[in-house]
Specification:
The protein has 399 residues and is an alpha+beta fold. It is 16% helix and 35% strand. The protein is built from 2 helices and 23 strands. The strands form 6 sheets. Strands 3, 4, 6, 7 and 8 form a 5-stranded antiparallel β-sheet that branches. A hairpin with a 5-residue loop joins strand 22 and strand 23. The longest helix is centred in the C-terminal third of the chain and has 47 residues, at 352-398. The radius of gyration is 34 Å and the shape is elongated.
């Protein structure tokens, strides 16, 4: 008997000991380069028979929260714990561990069928992180699936946009969304967004925080930056003026950390707050009091506790976006350069056609002024000549 046959028999024996696969549409999980988030439906069959949290383990890790997502048991752990096995294939690294439900308590309302499901996280170490120019599509492994999308939009959000080049100060409009397959309705929040000139955030390199403090759009205090009202809740929109770093590259990258959560839950840790003319305002403007912490530290006390779960968290990098300085004149060799923008000293943008028209009017005005001045000078000279002639004639008469 070959080695593979022995392995298959061994796996079958292990499965018979630990139980069958989890019921369909029960287990969902996401992975990033260092972390795994697993959610397990607490009522797998929808029959009222719920899982015993004490009988459910991810490798050697227990359930980390029973209340992070309503109706789900949640595991959130680094890949370095819980007993994950690690296999490498060139640049591909696979982390895997079993999620095991082995009930030890018997009760009329407890789900009694044991099951085992493998949690696998497959990473590409040569693409960490992976910047993309326009759209990010991040498939998430699991019996269910969560797909994250990020799209550039037109200024009025009426359609997607293909441009990747912006003038300094022009609006960059983005739409982030999560698509669930066989999953309960979800809501997406932007926990933070950091701008850098490189695809990797560096401790020594320049960076700028657009959104921080769990969903506070702090750039709105100095610019026209805000979250934009939109439904459904599995999509969130935002806009901010294009920026660039002084004495650095004209390219910028956006590092997003998004949180997926229950649609009915808005807290200091899960919110979307914009700074408008009347102060901080929650997207939807229903519970704006949760934005009051944006000028301090949101939920400072709870952040020290393990049970203050952040939700299902995912990170994505968007870019590069190229930002041109209007004073320089614009985009070289760009198909989008049909209407360049120039900036006057006062800072108002003028197109070349309008600028030429103003120049022509200015020349005509100068010519008109010159004619008037010349005419007045000639008339003045004529009057002086007449006066001199009159004085001469009167002198001759007296003589």
């Amino acid at each position: 008997m070959g080695q593979w046959a022995v392995l298959v028999l061994w796996l079958s024996w292990v499965t018979s000991l630990t139980g069958q696969n989890a019921p369909d549409k029960t287990v969902f999980y996401t992975c990033n380069n260092t972390f795994v988030s697993v959610s397990v439906r607490s009522d797998p069959l929808g029959s009222g028979m719920k899982l015993d949290p004490g009988s459910l383990t991810l490798g050697r890790c227990p359930v980390s929260s029973t209340s992070a997502l309503y109706g789900f048991l949640v595991f959130e752990y680094p890949l370095s714990v819980c007993g994950f096995s690690r296999m490498t294939y060139g640049n591909i690294v696979k982390y895997f561990v079993n999620l095991v439900y082995q009930p030890t308590n018997v009760g009329a309302s407890l789900f009694s069928q044991p099951f085992t499901t493998q949690i696998s996280c497959i990473l590409n170490t040569s693409m960490t992180p992976t910047p993309t120019e326009t759209t990010v599509v991040v498939p998430v492994s699991g019996e269910g699936q969560l797909n994250f999308f990020a799209s550039l939009m037109t200024d009025d959000f009426s359609d997607t946009s293909s441009t990747k080049d912006f003038y300094l100060g022009s609006p960059i409009s983005l739409q982030l969304s999560v698509e669930s397959t066989h999953h309960m309705p979800l809501r997406i929040f932007v926990d933070e967004c950091i701008v850098t000139p490189t695809p990797v955030i560096s401790n020594t390199g320049p960076s700028y925080s657009l959104i921080n403090n769990h969903g506070c759009f702090v750039d709105g205090k100095v610019a026209a930056s805000k979250f934009v009202e939109h439904f459904p809740l599995d999509t969130i929109r935002l806009t901010f003026p294009a920026m660039r770093f002084v004495d650095d590259s004209d390219k910028i990258y956006l590092h997003f950390k998004v949180v997926v959560w229950d649609t009915n839950t808005v807290t200091e840790l899960r919110k979307a707050c914009s700074y408008l003319s009347n102060g901080w305002q929650l997207l939807g403007n229903s519970q704006s009091s949760v934005c009051n912490c944006c000028d301090s530290v949101c939920n400072k006390a709870s952040r020290r506790k393990r049970h203050a779960d952040p939700g299902l968290v995912y990170t994505m990098v968007l870019g590069p976006f190229k930002v041109y300085s209007p004073a320089v004149g614009g985009r070289e060799n760009s198909s989008a350069n049909e209407s360049k923008v120039e900036v006057t000293k006062s800072g108002f943008p003028l197109s070349p056609v309008v600028g030429a028209l103003f120049l022509e009017l200015a020349v005509l005005l100068l010519l008109s002024v010159g004619v008037v001045v010349y005419d007045r000078a000639a008339k003045h000279k004529c009057e002086e000549t007449e006066k001199r002639s009159l004085v001469t004639n009167e002198t001759d008469h007296f003589n």
